[in-house]
Write a structure and sequence with these properties.
Blueprint (H helix, E strand, L loop, with lengths): L6 H4 L10 H9 L6 H7 L12 H6 L2 H19 L34 E5 L2 H12 L3 E6 L20 H6 L4 E4 L5 H8 L3 E4 L10 H7 L4 E6 L14 H8 L19 H24 L4 E5 H6 L4 H7 L24 E4 L5 E4 L5 H11 L15 H6 L1 H13 L3 H10 L5 E3 L2 H4 L3 H5 L4 E5 L3 E5 L5 E2 L10 E2 L28 E5 L4 H11 L3 E6 L13 H6 L3 E5 L5 H11 L4 E4 L5 H4 L15 E4 L16 H8 L1 H4 L14 H24 L3 E4 L2 H7 L2 H10 L18 E5 L6 E5 L3 H11 L3 H4 L6 H6 L1 H12 L4 H10 L3 E4 L3 H6 L2 H5 L3 E5 L5 E5 L3 E3 L17 H9 L3 H10 L4
Parallel strand pairs: 1-2, 1-4, 2-3, 3-13, 4-5, 5-6, 14-15, 14-17, 15-16, 17-18, 18-19
Antiparallel strand pairs: 6-25, 7-8, 8-9, 10-11, 12-19, 20-21, 21-22, 23-24
């Protein structure tokens, strides 16, 4: 894999780099091309457009695979003609061949029971600790003897003084005030499996070498804003600035608003999920090697990799519905042009998503109320292709229709028709649905000094979950429980591939599921992606930037799951895997015999992960959702807006990324559970509950204090920072984020601005005064930034220890960000056809090296022959017969 330090070297202007004439010849340059805008309607057939280069790979990518299968098929035909039966597959290997010995024992504890975690970190690390505690790990948060900064974070439970945010981020943990360098601290670390920290500069109680020497068994996970090394490693960063620097703010908001930060500290949640996955990967690596390891996770890199279209447009500037390589702010309008929020006759919002069922469901529904307009004109719109070409007009028709109706009514009727619409709700409505009640998502928990309060549940659920999470338990001293007894790790994990030996059968599609399995594949897991020719269209093909972006490092096989023979092959493959994952509607895997019950005898240790929008149970289990649907019905859209606008929301598919990484975490928990108990695990990643969980503090504030929050644009939702905003800088659409906490920082900013008089101005002299006068405050800051370069403002503020950062877009990320360049985060990976594709790397170093990113997404069925021969011992003749019968298509 090659990675360039310059922005030019990082950018692919097409999916594949043009090779030399000697390598590719004239034929490649004149190959038919497929336009992504037509891909869904055209089913991937070549078109005459020369704007898009995405069709070239479709013609040549699977050549080797087709040759293997064709030869096998020809042998079958000849044998059949002579009356000779082809050899059958010799059946699945025993699990013992993979060094896994399963024991029959009852499930008695949670997936991570006995995992010992010491945590001393801020938001992202604390959230990672929370996730590990949710899974049953014994997590001890160690705070300085002088107090924990999280305990001072507003809001609070009534007048109790107990921080809602501390209760949420530390749920399920024990909390102890302790100096880790003391004898007691050393005793704690000596018996721990994992240390989660965010130490920077002189904050660390140990030098790295001394820590490793003193505690050789310890897996150390450093979760810092930028990563431990690099030119920006010491930047002061909070959630606002993290959104700015990573590009997330650059695609959130509208052309009329400043870039917007996402509501609810979501940067910590994204990074926390990654950190939890790294933690379990590190434990696996430690258990295989017998020695501890160090993960250096960069929050900045993690966030850049989780902003959907930003890098996708840069790497594939001619590959979609965009006209520029720089992703733009366009409110709730999805980059595809097919999802957008509109307001109803009462001013409430509705997320309208016509990309599914446009012809067979949505237009007939519009006809029922005489609202279809000319969308039924068959001369103008003879087929889906014509409608897709005129999607802007389709969306305008839907906007007018929404304005005449009631959002909640349209939401429910759309779901009855299996259309993924979502009503835009505030927190008060998001928490009061029959789905959360039926699934028991909220439980009553006691808060010291306050009393009982409804507490949100886990972000992912398993059949082995323990008691529901509640506020942390504060202890005077921490002692560990019984140590885990585990089966040996399979495979040969290394720092470059800590999940080597882990195998996953992947039935996911589009973004959420493939993104999660990409995380596992990047860390070395053998991910076998199952596709079918029947679904080889749109986002499921090499013609689509989604497919190319989320499916690297995976093998690809083709099975027609409508056929029982294909389902039997899938069941046999499951016996050779550690986990199966899907994001179909509830119940699909079970109907194929791929549930835990259906595989109980052949694969008793299997982890089965489902990623249904609403989960596998409850009255809404059959609802159809996309990420914008989840954003709408959980409060994320409503609160990521400006006052008076319920229709902006996140500019990218936040919950698709997060639910994907949550699913990866669920698989790792399941594998750890099997190592300890010999049994498999059902994991239910309900994306609705995940979205609600991301709003945890806001929900608790509502339950405890009756506060139903309203959108505040870029101001701090709990008024802990002021100023806290994104301000204009010189240049077209250039902005800089600045956040100030406390009077000392305010005086420092006044000095930087050359306006010391503001420090004494009664409107701004105290924090309370600044909060009360935020309009005037923002005006003063904007007047100063407007005539200055955004990076100069950032540098001047950072030099005084202030939290500030330029709002970067995709071009800045790829060509101007010195930190990413120094850490060689962006570059290229090889493609099947001998070309190269732009890509970002996994956002962590492991013992000083990156996990290996080996190859780009594979074409449909490219590895079918190899997988069936390797894992099922099938003969070429048997495979050839399946080819002839159409089972492998």
């Amino acid at each position: 894999m090659t990675f360039a330090r310059s922005g030019k070297g990082c950018r692919s202007t097409t999916i594949w780099k043009k090779m030399t004439t000697a390598k590719m010849g004239a034929r490649s340059r004149s190959a038919p091309r497929v336009c992504f805008a037509m891909a869904n309607a055209n089913r991937g057939k070549p078109c005459s457009s020369r704007v898009c280069c995405m069709g070239v790979r479709q013609a040549c990518a699977a050549r080797l695979h087709r040759t293997k299968l064709r030869r096998a098929g020809q042998r079958v035909i000849r044998r059949a003609a002579s009356g000779t039966r082809p050899l059958q597959g010799r059946g699945p290997r025993t699990l013992g061949d993979r060094s896994v010995r399963f024991r029959a024992m009852e499930r008695t504890s949670t997936p991570l029971a006995g995992l010992r975690v010491v945590e001393q970190a801020g938001w992202a690390g604390a959230f990672a600790g929370r996730l590990l505690a949710d899974g049953g790990g014994d997590v001890v948060r160690v705070t300085p003897p002088g107090g924990d900064g999280l305990d001072a974070e507003p809001p609070f439970f009534g007048e109790s003084g107990v921080s809602i945010q501390a209760a949420w981020y530390n749920a399920g943990k024990r909390v102890v005030a302790l100096n880790l360098a003391s004898d007691e601290g050393r005793e704690l670390l000596a018996e721990a499996d994992l240390l989660v920290e965010d130490w920077r500069g002189g904050e660390a109680p140990f030098e790295a070498e001394a820590l490793q020497a003193a505690f050789p068994q310890l897996v150390r996970l450093s979760v810092t804003p930028m990563g431990r090394e690099g030119p920006w490693a010491r930047l002061a960063v909070n959630d606002l600035v993290a959104n700015a620097l990573s590009g997330a703010a650059s695609v959130t908001g509208t052309a009329e608003t400043p870039p917007l930060t996402g509501y609810g500290n979501q940067t910590a949640h994204i990074v926390g999920f990654y950190a939890a996955c790294c933690a379990l990967a590190g434990v696996r690596l430690r258990d295989a090697s017998g020695k501890g390891c160090h993960f250096d996770l960069s929050s900045h890199e993690t966030l850049v990799a989780n902003t959907e279209q930003m890098l996708m447009q840069w790497f594939f500037p001619e590959g979609g519905r965009w006209t520029t390589a720089i992703a733009e702010r366009q409110g709730s309008l999805h980059w595809s042009g097919g999802y957008e929020c509109y307001t109803d006759r009462n001013g409430d919002g509705l997320m309208v998503t016509p990309s599914l069922g446009l012809i067979d469901k949505l237009i007939p529904w519009l006809e029922e109320t005489d609202s279809a307009g000319d969308l039924t004109d068959r001369e103008r719109y003879p087929d889906l292709i014509a409608l897709v070409k005129d999607m802007a007009h389709v969306m305008a028709t839907l906007r007018d229709w929404t304005a005449e109706n009631v959002a909640d009514e349209l939401f429910m009727e759309a779901q009855r028709k299996r259309l993924p619409f979502g009503a835009v709700w505030p927190v008060s409505k998001a928490v009061a649905t029959p789905q959360v009640e039926a699934r028991g998502y909220f439980t009553e928990q006691d808060v010291a000094g306050y009393g009982s309060v409804r507490f949100p549940g886990r972000l992912i659920s398993t059949e082995a979950d323990g008691p529901a999470p509640g506020p942390p338990v504060r202890v005077d001293e921490a002692a560990w429980g019984e140590r885990r007894k585990l089966e040996a790790v399979t495979g040969q994990p290394t720092a470059g591939a800590p999940l080597a030996g882990l195998r996953v059968l992947d039935f996911t599609h589009v973004l959420a599921g493939p993104f999660g399995t990409r995380v596992l594949a990047d860390l070395g897991a053998d991910v076998i992606k199952v596709g079918t020719a029947a679904r080889n269209a749109g986002a499921n093909t090499l013609n689509h930037p989604y497919y190319l972006s989320w499916n690297r490092n995976k093998r690809n096989i083709c099975l027609d799951m409508r056929r029982e023979e294909a389902r039997e092959l899938a069941r046999r493959l499951a016996g050779q895997c550690d986990a199966i994952i899907d994001n179909f509607s509830a119940g699909v895997l079970a109907r194929w015999g791929l549930s835990r019950e259906g595989l109980a005898e052949s694969a008793p240790g299997l982890t089965v992960v489902s990623m249904g929008g609403m989960g596998n149970s409850g009255p809404w289990r059959d609802f159809v959702t996309f990420a914008p649907t989840i954003h709408a019905i959980t409060g994320l859209t409503y609160l990521t807006s400006v006052p008076g606008r319920p229709d902006i929301g996140f500019g990218y598919s936040l919950t698709d990324h997060l639910s994907g990484v949550a699913a990866a975490l669920g698989i790792l928990e399941g594998v750890e559970h099997r190592r300890r108990t010999g049994q498999g695990l059902d994991v239910d990643v309900a994306q609705y509950e995940l979205g609600l969980g991301l709003m945890g503090p806001a929900m608790l504030d509502y339950f405890a204090n009756g506060v139903d929050p309203e959108p505040v644009a870029n101001r701090h939702p709990f008024k802990a920072w002021a100023p806290h905003g994104i301000y204009p800088a010189t240049g077209e659409d250039r902005w800089v984020a600045i956040a100030v906490r406390g009077d000392e920082q305010w005086r420092a900013l006044c000095d930087v601005m050359g306006a010391p008089e503001f420090a004494e101005d009664p409107r701004f002299a105290t924090h309370e005064a600044r909060v009360a006068n935020q309009d005037a405050l923002d005006g003063c800051v904007s007047a100063w930034t407007a005539g200055r370069d955004r990076y100069e403002v950032m540098d001047a503020c950072q030099a005084r220890g202030l939290v500030a950062g330029a709002v970067q877009d995709g071009g800045d990320i790829a060509t101007r960000d010195p930190h990413l360049a120094a850490r060689e985060f962006l570059g290229t990976i090889p493609t099947e056809d001998g070309g190269e594709q732009g890509a970002e790397r996994f956002p962590a170093y492991i013992d000083g090296q990156r996990p290996t990113t080996a190859y780009a997404a594979r074409s449909l069925g490219a590895d079918t022959f190899d997988v069936l021969t390797e894992l099922l011992d099938m003969s070429p003749e048997a495979i050839g017969e399946l080819v002839a019968d159409g089972v492998l298509s």
